[in-house]
Amino acid sequence: MASGGSNGKPPKIAAVGLKARFGSNEVVRGVDMQISERTVTAIIGPSGCGKSTLLRTLNRMHELINGATVDGEVLLDGENVYAHEVDPVLLRRRVGMVFQKPNPFPSMSIRQNVLAGLSLTGRAVRAEADAVVEKALKQAALWEEVKDRLDAPGIGLSGGQQQRLCIARALAVEPEVLLMDEPCSALDPIATARIEDLIHVLKERYTIVIVTHNMQQAARVSEHTAFMLHGDLVEFAATNKLFTQPSDRRTEDYITGKFG
Amino acid sequence: MSLARQNKRQGERIFWLVSLFAIALPLVILGWLLVDVLSDAVQRLSWQFITSYPSRKPENAGILPALVGSIYLIGLTASIALPIGVGAAIFLEEYGRHSRLAGVIEVNIANLAGVPSIIYGLLGLGVFVRALGMGRSLIAGAATMALLVLPMIIMVTREALRTVPMSLREACYGLGSTRWQSIWQVVLPSAFPGILTGAILAISRAIGETAPLVVVGALTYVTFVPDGIDAPFTVLPIQIFNWVSRPQHGFVVNSAAAITVLVCTMLVLNGIAIYLRNRLQQRKAT
User: Fold this and answer.
1) In terms of DSSP H, where are the helices of B91-176?
2) CA torsion B43→B48→B52→B58, rounded to 10°?
3) Count of beta carbons in the 10 Å neighbourhood of residue B81
4) Fewer CB under 10 Å: which end of chain B, C or N?
C-alpha cells in the first residue's frame, strides 16, 4: 500500500500490518503507513472507517477499551511499541494526545491543568513550574489570553480556549509526537482557525497526526493525507496530490462528495 | 376543545393532591413523633443528663457512657468500613469492571445490603466475639457494624465513580499517567462529594442500629466510659431500649431525652456531610 510519507529520512512513526479489533469486529484491517518527523499527517474518511481507532493504536490508547486488541507493529523511531518490554505509560509520555471534546480537569486551575501531566506522574518540579506553564501556554497560543488569571479554573474558559489548554497540557510533558483526534469538531469556525494556525507552528517542533472528518481542514493543515474506508488505508499521499489527482477511484468519489 | 382542557386540568389537580398527600403524611407523623418525644424530653434534658452515668434512680441517670460509646463506635466503624468499602468499589469499578467475577460480586453485594441486621449481629458474634476472641468489646461491635454498612458504602461509591466521565480518565492516560495515578489524583477527587454523601448516609444508619449490637453483646448497664477499643461498651439505642422497658415513668422520660440527643447527633452528622459536600461541589463548579 501507499507510503507517501517517506521522503528519504527514516520515519518517525510507522505502522506495519496494523490491525485493530473490538472483540471480533475488525475496525482497522492491516494498515501500513510511514509518518515523517516534523510533518502534519491527516487521516480522513467517513464515520466508522477506523480512523480514530488507527490513531489510538499509535500510543496504545486503543487497548484501554474492554475487548480491544491489536495485531501488527507500530514503530516509533524504529522501535516496536507493542513489544513485550515496552511500558505503554512511558510510550504515552512520548506520544501525546488531544481529544475530540476539550477535557480539562474540572477541579484544577489553568495553571494546574498545564502542569497536570507532570504532577500526575510525580515529576512536578516546583522551581521550573512557572517556566513550564508559560512555555506550554505560549506554544498553545493561549498565554496572552490567560496570563493574568492562571489560577482561575480551566473549565471557565471558552470551548476553543479549553482545547488550546488541553494542547498546552499535552505539550508540557514535551512529547515528540502529538496525536489529535478531531480536535476541532466541537469548536466554532474562529476557534477552529486558531487551532489550525497553531498546528502550522507546532509542526516546526512536533510530529503531528490529526484525524479529521473535515476535508478542507486536512487540505489546509497537512502535508500528507491518508484516506481510510471500512478499516482499509485506501490511499496515502502528499496532501495536494491526494486532493487533486487521487490515484484510487474510491478516494476520488469521497473527496468529490459522491458518498460519505 | 374547552371540555378536553378542563379534564386535563382536573387530572393535573388530582395528581397534585396525591403528591401533596404523599409528602404531608410522613411529615405529619414525623412531626407528631417529635412533639411527643420532645414534650417528655424537656423535663429531663440538661447538661447533667448528658454528663451523668446510669443510675437506679431515674432522676440521677444520665447517658454519658452510651453517648461516648456511640461516638467511639461510629468513629471506629467509619475507619474500618470506609477504606475497605471505597477500596472494594475502586477495584470493582476501575479494575474489574467487565470481569465475570465482578458481576457475581455485584449481585452478592446488592443481596447483602438487604440482609436483616440481626444476621450481621450473629455473624459478628460468631466471628469477631468468639472465633477471633475480641470478646464483647467496642472493636467487635465496630467490626460488626462495618460489615453491616459495607455493602451500602460499596454501592454508593461505585455509583459516584461511574459519574466521573471517561474523558477525564483518557486525558490522564494520554498524559502518560498510570491507572493508579489517574484514580488517585483525578477520579477519586471528582467522585469524592458523592462518596462522602453516601458514606454519611450509611454511617448514620449504623448510629441507629440496635439489633446486631444486642447480639454482639453491648451491655445495657454501663457505669464507665470505654477506655480502649477492647473495652465493653453500650450505645444510645441500647440505653434507650433498656429504659423504655422499665416500668417507672421516670425512665420513660429519660428515654425520650436520650432519643432527642440521638436525633440531634444524627442531624449534626448529616449537616456536616451536606456542608462538606456543598463546599466541595462549589469548589469544583467555580
Assistant:
1) 100-112, 117-124, 138-162, 166-174
2) -30
3) 26
4) N
- The total of other beta-carbon atoms located within 10 Å of residue B60's CB is 13
Give me the amino acid identity at A104: P
- Structure ipTM: 0.87
How many Å is the Cα radius of gyration of chain B?
23
Quote helix, strand, coil % in chain B, to nearest 5: 75, 0, 25
Cα gap A45→A29, rounded to integer Å = 14
pTM for this structure? 0.79
Residue A84 CA to residue B59 CA, distance in Å, equals 77
Cell numbers for B240: 434507650
Phi, psi of B11, rounded to the nearest 5 degrees: -60, -45
Crossing angle (nearest 10°) for helices A110-120 and A159-172: 30
B124 and B206 Cβ atoms separated by less than 8 Å: no
* Residue A60 contacts B, CB cutoff 8 Å: no
The dihedral of CA A31, A33, A39, A42: what is its sign? negative
Write out residues 92-121 of A within 8 Å (CB-CB) of B: 92-93, 96-99, 101, 103-107, 116-117, 119-121
Query: pLDDT digit string (tens) for B229-282?
Result: 888 888 888 888 888 888 888 888 888 899 999 888 888 888 887 887 788 776
Rounded Cα distance between A155 and A201, Å, is 25
- pLDDT (tens digit, 9 = 90+) per residue, A79-110? 999 999 999 999 999 999 999 999 999 888 99
Q: Hey, is A211 helix, strand or coil?
A: strand
Up-side HSE of residue B116: CA atoms within 13 Å toward CB? 5
Q: What cell does A192 get?
A: 477552529
Per the rule left: phi > 0, alpha: psi between -120 and 50, beta: everything else, B217 is left
Q: Cβ(A70)–Cβ(A62) under 8 Å?
A: yes
Report how far residue A198's alpha carbon sits from residue A217's, in angstroms, rounded to the nearest whole number.
13
Q: Which residues pair with A80 in a beta bridge?
A: A75
Cα–Cα distances (Å) from B187 to B163, B171, B276, in that order, read: 10, 11, 18
